[in-house]
Amino acid sequence: MKDTDSEAPDIKPGRLDRGTYAHVFDDINPPLSAREALIEAARCHFCFDAPCVEACPTSIDIPSFIGKIRTGNLKGSAIDILSANIFGGTCARVCPVEELCEEACVRTTGENKPVKIGLLQRHAVDALMKDGAHPFTRAPDSGKKIAVVGTGPAGLACAHRLAMLGHNVDVYEARAKPGGLNEHGIAAYKVPDDFAQKEVAWLLGIGGIKIYDNKALGRDVTLDDLRKRYNAVFLGTGLQTTQKLGLGDETLEGVEDAVGYIERLRQAKDLSKLPVGRRVVVIGGGNTAIDIAIQSKRLGAEDVTLVYRRGPSQMGATDHEQHLAQTEGVRIKHWVAPVKLIGWRGKVKEIELAYTRLDDAGKLVLTEARTTLLADMVFKAIGQQLVKDPFDDNAREPLAIKNGKLVVNDERETSLPGVYAGGDCTATGSDLTVRAVEDGKLAAIAIDKRLRR
After folding, report:
1. Lowest mean pLDDT among 53-62, 64-73, 233-242, 342-351
2. In this predicted structure, what is the pLDDT of residue 392?
3. What does pLDDT average to over the chain?
4. What distances in angstroms separate CA 341 from CA 276, 372, 401, one per listed residue?
5. Three-class DSSP category at 344
6. With the C-alpha atoms ordered 81, 87, 92, 95, is the resulting torsion angle positive or negative?
7. Domains, the chain, ordered by start
8. Closest Cα to residue 114, out of 201, 190, 45, 163?
9. 170, 165, 122, 130: which is closest to 146 by C-alpha?
10. Which of 170, 234, 295, 323 has the fewest CB neighbours in a 10 Å radius?
11. Any bridge partners for residue 355, and if so which?
12. Rg of the Cα atoms in the chain
């Protein structure tokens, strides 16, 4: 390939018409109208042993909340939801319902058309939040104080439940804005209209919770200090860094962490000033890979290719997400793995891929066959990992870590008495918002029980 300026990597802002940016990340799943919600609620069989409830990580009483929608009791419906999952608004938007509650719906068998549980949940919760009043009240003040680290769904779910139980909670957030991945890491088209911040503000309506922004664990506060000053500690720090590809030249301009770019996108005041490549390659197979691929395309990237080392059934992203990416114009290339980044004057220009296969033992191996893709930008979406230094740096009692995540028991207590954890920083299940909410809720209940003993 000739080394000419005309073939230089092409990364620039403003690829769309100015007026287009106002709608480029409009709601991908518009809400149901009141009439549509009533019609959909009427489709529910209100099963006694509802399989959809079993499939929900937070055990929302789905037949109950749908039944209340059917009778016009939206407030009661929302309280059913929020009693089990205080982030019912976000989860209604981002949960992979097609693999959880809706997949388990009895309407799926035969009809292959489950009740739209996610949209019905959103209908009820949005109506309550629009009303503005907080539906829960605090128990009498316990006199106990708990520290929560992180304002993501795990941290704030824990804080809210503790506040309901009468405890006072101080929440420490490393960023300048609360919300965790709901605010900084989820695709913009899933939570438009600043919904994450509206939900945080609404959640804080319970009272008894104070958030301290720009307070990072290991930099501004230490676990040892928190243990001394509080009756219990909950860690909902998430995973702080993206894993490396293990290739040379990962520092080339144009090679970026997908999560970092999504955060920049979510916080951008003017999307027309956000640079994007003409040719984008995304490495990974999870929901973050899908999110960054679709958002790159919507920002004006001409060609977006997602490359994954295995087949479609092994991808972390759901079938629904994979289909969505393809309908948005993203090309998904399976059974290839990156082996080399090729630069041009300090900028990425190409990525070399090896075709992969499974050997007789079922192990993934690279073949000798190679292919290359032109790439102005390469996004790494191959998973994140825990930065453990804040937990064990100079600590007399380091936390137990296994396979890169904090070890917790069924009550979400770590190896240190009185220190609990949940969400992505622990290995409690799939890395889903709804799972993080359940972790926070279970930890709060365990902390309350411990303190009242």
Report:
1. 233-242
2. 59
3. 93
4. 18, 10, 33
5. strand
6. negative
7. 34-131 (1.10.1060.10), 145-240+386-452 (3.50.50.60), 242-380 (3.50.50.60)
8. 45
9. 170
10. 323
11. 336
12. 23
Q: Tell me the three state secondary structure of residue 72.
A: coil
User: What are the phi and psi torsion angles at 356 (to 5°)?
Assistant: -115, 165
Residues 223 and 155 sit within 8 Å (Cβ to Cβ): no
Q: Which DSSP letter does residue 359 get?
A: -
Greatest Cα pair distance in the chain: 74
- How would DSSP label each residue in 174-242? SSSS--THHHHTS-TTTS-TTHHHHHHHHHGGGSSEEEESS--BTTTB-HHHHHHHSSEEEE-----EE
Task: Name every residue whose Cβ is closer than 8 Å to that of residue 433 and which is 6 or more positions away in sequence.
Answer: 87, 90, 91, 94, 95, 153, 181, 182, 186
Euclidean distance between CA atoms 227 and 125, whole angstroms: 36
pLDDT of residue 398: 81
**Best-predicted range by mean pLDDT (2-11, 127-136, 202-211):** 202-211
- pLDDT average, residue stretch 349-377: 96
Q: What is the mean pLDDT of residues 97-113?
A: 92
Among 262-271, 289-298, 325-334, 395-404, name the one with the lowest average pLDDT: 395-404
CA separation for the pair 146, 418 (Å, rounded) = 10
Q: Nearest-5° angle of CA 118, CA 122, CA 124?
A: 120
